[in-house]
């Protein structure tokens, strides 16, 4: 299964709170802004695991050239809807200076996406009590 989302870069941990179904509400105040930055589309190859999906980017994701410093990038996230999605820290922070680009090579962005189930009863979202 292939699914397309948007990937975003952050200068601090953006996780505000874990949602009832397992994804996260994210603080877009710590998302990179200005300097030519824009969220980029990413196509994931999803492989079913026992408790969800392992998602890896199928192609390179290349952010536009920074026209000003973006600062230290510490986290990446994909958005499912609104400000809700999944986040992963970088193995080490990366400074992005004016004139540089950021490339995420195929397979480098890997996220374990759990099946969304209710935390209290483990049923699918939208079930009746």
SSE arrangement, N to C:
EEEEEEEEEE
Number of strands: 10
Instruction: Give the overall pLDDT as a whole number.
Output: 84
What proportion strand? over 45%
Assembly type of the chains comes to single chain
Based on CA inertia axes, which overall geometry fits? globular
Unreliable spans: none
Sequence of strands across the biggest β-sheet:
2-3-8-7-1-4-5-10
Number of helices: 0
Helix content: under 10%
Cα radius of gyration in angstroms? 16 Å
Sheet with most strands: 8 strands, antiparallel
SS content category: mainly beta
Terminal CA distance reads 31 Å
Number of domains: 1
InterPro entries: Gp80-like
Report on this model:
InterPro entries: Gp80-like (IPR056908). It holds the Pfam family Gp80. This protein is an all-beta fold and 129 residues long. The protein has one domain. The protein has no helices and ten strands. The protein has strands at residues 2-10, 15-18, 24-26, 40-49, 52-57, 61-62, 71-81, 84-96, 103-104, 110-114. The strands form two sheets. The chain has an eight-stranded antiparallel beta sheet, with no helix packed on it. A two-stranded antiparallel sheet has the order 6-9. A hairpin with a 2-residue loop joins strand 4 and strand 5. The protein is globular and about 50 Å long.
What is the topological layout?
Elements lengths: L1 E9 L4 E4 L5 E3 L13 E10 L2 E6 L3 E2 L8 E11 L2 E13 L6 E2 L5 E5 L15
Antiparallel strand pairs: 1-4, 1-7, 2-3, 3-8, 4-5, 5-10, 6-9, 7-8
């Amino acid at each position: 299964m292939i699914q397309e989302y948007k990937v975003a870069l952050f200068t601090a941990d953006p996780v505000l709170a874990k949602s009832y179904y397992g994804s996260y509400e994210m603080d877009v105040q710590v998302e990179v802004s200005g300097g030519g930055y824009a969220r980029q589309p990413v196509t994931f190859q999803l492989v079913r695991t026992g408790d969800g999906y392992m998602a890896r980017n199928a192609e390179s994701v290349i952010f536009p050239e920074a026209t000003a410093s973006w600062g230290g990038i510490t986290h990446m996230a994909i958005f499912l809807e609104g400000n809700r999605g999944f986040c992963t820290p970088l193995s080490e922070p990366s400074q992005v200076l004016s004139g540089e680009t950021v490339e995420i090579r195929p397979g480098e962005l890997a996220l374990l996406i759990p099946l969304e189930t209710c935390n209290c009863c483990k049923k699918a979202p939208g079930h009746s009590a």
